[in-house]
Design a protein that fits this description.
It contains nine helices and eight strands. By secondary structure, it is an alpha/beta fold. The chain has two domains: about 5-40 and about 185-250, no CATH class; about 45-175, D-Maltodextrin-Binding Protein, domain 2 (3-Layer(aba) Sandwich). The strands form two sheets. Strands 2, 3, 4, 5, 6 and 7 form a six-stranded mixed β-sheet that branches. Strands 1-8 form a two-stranded antiparallel sheet. The two termini are about 30 Å apart.
């Protein structure tokens, strides 16, 4: 059945997956009975503060960033409990990213030491105050501190480098980790094929408009519109991936 999707924005999987995984896989599957439009996504960043009061040099090379990331990975594999991650709500995209990072580098994701906070501001304070090892959030939450040298960004979860942002992706550092927070437009189940077509066409036309392009620019979002079967396939795979991760960290029963 036709479904559509729109775009990519920068804040680290969408609320539909988080909410439906919480309700169970049966309801998650029910999303396929609705009209869906993938709207935008937010890529996430892993950052940490220094162990002393010296600020980071914004001219540090990618090699230096890679070495710090390798040091963190080694610490995770040696004793995962001693490495603490700050981020948003338990089971949210930040938590999923922490588990994926641990599992990808060979640590036990089930033992991830993740500390949830209600917002990026609180997690930022925890990082700067030395209460946690590192933090995970949308780039916009940490960007100011990264630019000022108070935080070092160790990697961003996008497939490719974000335009205008000098932060290496995890993939280019040898870690196969790509994840994002995406948004979608959803209609109730039971709409007719004609209604679905009207909605799908409206979304498809909207993403071509100058007004939408201007919003993407203002918000720093990446346009990654998906329509029809392409979005249905994406949704099915992403739901399965996130469900597996949440099961691995004990947030969803197997």
């Amino acid at each position: 059945m036709p479904q559509s999707g729109i775009g990519d924005d920068r804040q680290d999987i969408g609320h539909h997956i988080e909410e439906d995984v919480d309700r169970g896989e049966d309801q998650a599957a029910g999303l396929h009975d609705r009209h869906v439009a993938h709207r935008h996504r937010i890529d996430h960043v892993l950052a940490h503060a220094g162990i002393n009061e010296d600020d980071f040099d914004n001219d540090d090379t990618d090699d230096e960033t890679r070495r710090e990331l390798e040091t963190m990975a080694a610490a995770l594999k040696a004793d995962i409990a001693k490495v603490t991650f700050a981020g948003g709500s338990a089971g949210g995209v930040d938590h999923v990213m922490a588990a994926l990072f641990a599992g990808t580098i060979g640590a036990d994701a089930k033992k991830i030491n993740y500390i949830p906070f209600s917002g990026g501001g609180e997690s930022l304070a925890a990082i700067l105050g030395g209460k946690v090892t590192a933090g995970i959030s949308g780039l916009s939450e940490y960007e100011g501190q990264i630019k000022s040298g108070k935080l070092r960004a160790l990697g961003v979860t996008s497939e490719k480098r974000i335009a205008g942002v000098d932060i290496p992706t995890f993939k280019e550092q040898g870690i196969d980790l790509v994840i994002a927070n995406w948004r979608s437009v959803v209609a109730p189940p039971g709409i007719t094929p004609e209604q679905r077509k009207v909605l799908s066409d409206a979304v498809a036309n909207m993403v071509k408009s100058d007004a939408w392009k201007e919003i993407l620019k203002q918000k720093g979002w990446e346009d990654a519109y998906l329509g029809g079967d392409a979005f249905a396939d994406f949704l099915k795979k992403e739901t399965a991936r996130v469900t597996d991760v949440l099961k691995s960290v004990g947030l969803v029963k197997s």
